Amino acid sequence: MLNFLPSDFSVLIEPESCIKCRRCVRECSFEALVFRDRVVPDHSRCVACHRCVAVCPSGAITVVRNRLAFRQNANWDEEIIKNVYKQARVGGKLLTGTGNDKPYPIYWDHLLIDAAQVTNPSIDPLREPMELRTYLGRKPSRLDFYHDAGGGFKLTTVLEPQIKLETPIIFAGMSYGAVSLNVHRALAAAARRAGTLMNSGEGGLHESLYSFGENVIVQVASGRFGINRAYLERAAAVEIKIGQGAKPGIGGHLPGEKVTGEISKTRMIPEGTDALSPAPHHDIYSIEDLRQLIYAIKEAVRYQKPVGVKISAVHNVAAISSGVVRAGADFVTIDGFRGGTGATPTIIRDHVGIPIEMALAAVDDRLRQEGIRHQASLIASGSIRSSADVLKAVALGADAVAIGTAALIALGCQMCQKCYTGRCAWGITTQRVDLTDRVDPEEGAERLYNLLRAWSLEIKEILGALGLNSIESLRGSRERLRAVGLTGTEMEILGVKPAGR
Amino acid sequence: MKAGGLREGDFRIPSGCAVAGIMNEDGKRFNGEKIVQAISIMRERSNGLGGGFSAYGIYPEFKDYYAFHVMFDHEEGRHGTETFLQESTVVVKSEAIPIRKQLSMTDAPLLWRYFLEVPKSRLNGLTEEDYVMRLVMHVNDSIEGAFVFSSGKNMGVFKGVGYPEDIGRFFRLEEYEGYLWTAHGRFPTNTPGWWGGAHPFSLLGWSVVHNGEISSYGINKRYLEMFGYRCTLMTDTEVIVYLLDLLMRKHNLPLDVACLVLAPPFWRDIDRMEENRREAVTALRMIYGSALLNGPFSVIIAHENEMIGLTDRIMLRPLVIARKEATLYMASEEAAIREVCPYPDRVWTPKGGVPVMARLNEAAAVR
pLDDT-derived band of residue B4, with 50, 70 and 90 as boundaries? Predict the structure, then answer.
């Protein structure tokens, strides 16, 4: 039988411009280019990662969509047809990387932010202080003080541990294994410089990064990789990872070839063995089991650090979050269905979970109705693309947001979605030393810091326009958002009015 | 509570305003003429769509009873309210609030006052104040055409739609004597046309006159809802009153600490504080961040023993303070103070976010 799968892209090389330096051939980790008296592309291998385009000294390369036309069909579109071909050929699950790319509604883009006019003045962030400082952790509902005769007072309430952030943006969990050590180094250094946090992900923390512990949330996931006493003790906070937006209910699988010497040491598993994260934690089959693990960790860190739980946004997320908070979580990370991943079955990524906007609004509402909103901080993730998304998330009720995909884009990621192949030409989601060298940790840290700085400046600008000078005055203030193009029910869930009201 | 037409509570109405307050710290009582005079000089700052006063120490012979000032749209509202009050309290005295008809006053509601005693047997574990607060919320939420606009002891609020000096004459304020008076002239951007929407806002012994717009209204309101407060009027001032009630009465924070919640210092200043204070103020901002009043405001808060002037932390609305012997004056403009006290001992502008307090002297406080 003829085995025909049209390529996704075409690599066009202008023969007059090409100087035959072969740099593109060396740089293409997907082996889509070979040199035979001239550069010859294998279109079928091209993933549109743009590495060749970026390195070509004479600008001779362009990557375009394969122009081969399928008959137009809104139902059986090109991707669906190709997926059937692929599965008919090999009989396996299709894998992918990054987050959901399907055209589901993006609620951020249906929300507009208010501004001050006349009756309240806007505030100029260049002239007045603008405060973004945020504390994550369990808060009491009230405070008690001791007052001395001289009018002084002293706090008598003993606070649970809190983490201070200088901006309400942290880096999302991405494991060493899924990303390279250089990426972890860049994230850690940027988090320290910006006064915020990175998240180790579920693959442990490389020993060389323990010194950054104050700026690291360490994860405890179902595979329990890399967890030891120092790992927990050095961290700023511990996060139990139950789910991930890109693959709710699904475990993880780091193939043995990625488990190199350093990763094997960090994860505390033999070199070359597959690192399997089971779908559930096999000691957590219920909410009371989760409570036991939360308190086991709190005991281990002597109640000195917040212990949180990350869940993916699923249909019943409000009730689940309420249970998680009652189980003792000091913060809850909610990861929307557009959240990224290093590898997941495409069918799960594209069809399971709900949008973070809806999940966040529902969770914030539920925790308020139950009177327990103060007991845990909420971290929203799952496609925060800009400072506007950050602000909208905060207005819907998030204490902070976590960014993963945006951070990787800052490091050069072109969103080719091939993270799961281990061939990342930009050196981000790979362990091949020739590729990981492409990320310079110091330059990477600078770029990540720049991104946080730029977004923070924009947030201050918008806060000023809103007539606010402190982020907590926007937090949960849905009154400052208006909806365009949403149904009444959607607005009711988001707790926002339509524009014009 | 509501009947006919768009009202306060149906939509948000930003307002500009004039505020004034006078307190004699020795508890010496004086009639309402001074405060009317002071507020009327700032006529430019209001537009005839709202004015009002609060007065403390005006009912010495009934000082142990809750004085409810209630406005009714119609007689049915009054009957419903009176039946409810008779069921839930002992009504010691009820009477129409004396008024002087002014030509400029149209649409005045029926205005009544009730002196109430709460029988211990009705409390069912609630504090007396919580019980009274529930009565107020019940009338305002559930009894059609009735609105309690004042509910403290030995104090009362007088307010309506009109210029403040007209409201003062309407309520015959020169016939009352109090040691603490505050006043408000309103410049709403819309026409609420409802007397209940004017300032001061009051709950139990608290009253607030306020100039400004709370840009953090959305979260302040949602925060209060977690503690059972219902912000039905959609006004910023209502939020301030409830926040004070929560912080001081329910959470037991003293006034200066409550002010640190409403208008906290900036982090950069907190970071430089001495350790105990830094720890305390940091915790206040962490725990009570949703109670921070952000946006422009100057506010005069009154309570039986004190009067507090407070502005937002970058002072986007004016407030001037003056002292002459035992009397403290506060106003949006110095002219208002000079009008009634031409030669004060001292006049000053307070620092943004730093409260200025007048307190009843101890001897006077034991009344």
Answer: very low
What's the burial of A90, exposed, middle or buried (CB within 10 Å: 0-12/13-18/19+)?
Answer: exposed
Per the domain annotation, does B272 fall within a domain? yes
> Active-site residue B259, yes or no?
no
Tell me the sheet residues that pair with A308: A239, A331
Q: Which residue has the tokens 């006349």?
A: A118
A416 contacts: CB under 8 Å, gap ≥ 6: A47, A48, A49, A50
- The amino acid occupying position A478 is R
Give the DSSP per-residue string, B268-334. HHHTTS-HHHHHHHHHHHHHSGGG---SSEEEEEEETTEEEEEE-TT--S--EEEEETTEEEEESSH
Q: Is B100 domain-assigned? A: no
Measured between beta carbons, the chain A residues lying within 8 angstroms of B295 are: 116, 120, 467-468, 473
Question: ipTM, 2 decimals?
Answer: 0.91
- Assign residue B271 the CATH number of its domain: 3.60.20.10
Which ranges constitute the DSSP H helices of B179-272?
A: 217-225, 236-244, 255-262, 267-270
Coil, strand or helix at B199: coil
Q: Give CA B14 to chain center in angstroms.
A: 17
Whole domain around residue B165: which residue ranges? Answer: 17-62+157-365
- Tell me if domain A9-92 and domain A163-498 are identical in fold: no
- Whether the CB of B313 is below 8 Å from some CB of chain A: the reply is yes
| Residue from A148, A154, A479 whose CB has the most chain B CBs within 10 Å, to mutate | A479
In sequence order, what are the beta bridge partners of B93? Answer: B115
Q: CB–CB of B65/B117 below 8 Å?
A: yes
Closest residue in A to B213 (Cα–Cα): A120
Give which of A351, A369, A340 is closest to A315, Cα–Cα.
Answer: A351
CB contact under 8 A, B257 and A142: no
Of the CA atoms within 13 Å of residue B57, those in its CB half-sphere come to 25
Amino acid in position A303: Y
Total tally of structural domains belonging to chain B: 1
The answer to the question of residue B278 being in a domain is: yes
DSSP per-residue codes, A344-407: EEHHHHHHSS--HHHHHHHHHHHHHHTT-GGGSEEEEES---SHHHHHHHHHHT-SEEEESHHH
Residues of chain A with pLDDT under 70: none
Nearest alpha-carbon partner for A240 in A204, A290, A205, A177? A290
- Which fold is adopted by the domain A163-498? TIM Barrel (3.20.20)
For residue B237, what pLDDT is reported? 83
Domain-by-domain residue ranges, chain A? Answer: 9-92, 163-498
Angle of helix A317-326 versus helix A287-300 axis, rounded to 10: 40
Query: Do the Cβ atoms of A476 and B222 come within 8 Å?
Result: yes
Report the C-alpha gap between B299 and B210 in whole angstroms. Answer: 4
Question: Does some domain include residue B117?
Answer: no
Q: B193 or B325: whose pLDDT is higher?
A: B325
Contacting residues of A for B313, CB less than 8 Å apart = 469
Nearest to B164 by CA among B121, B199, B117: B199
Show residues of chain B in contact with A133, CB under 8 Å: 267
Q: What is the mean pLDDT of residues B286-311?
A: 94
**Neighbour tally for A370: CB within 10 Å:** 16
Say yes or no for a CB contact (<8 Å) between A121 and B16: no
Tokens standing for residue B95: 């009477």
Q: pLDDT band for B228, please (50, 70, 90 cuts).
A: confident
Fold of A9-92: Alpha-Beta Plaits (3.30.70)
Measure B277 CA to nearest chain A CA, in Å: 7
Chain A residues in contact with chain B using a Cβ-Cβ cutoff of 8 Å: 116, 119-121, 123, 128-129, 131, 133, 135, 139-145, 147, 151-155, 157, 159, 162, 368, 371, 373-374, 466-470, 472-480
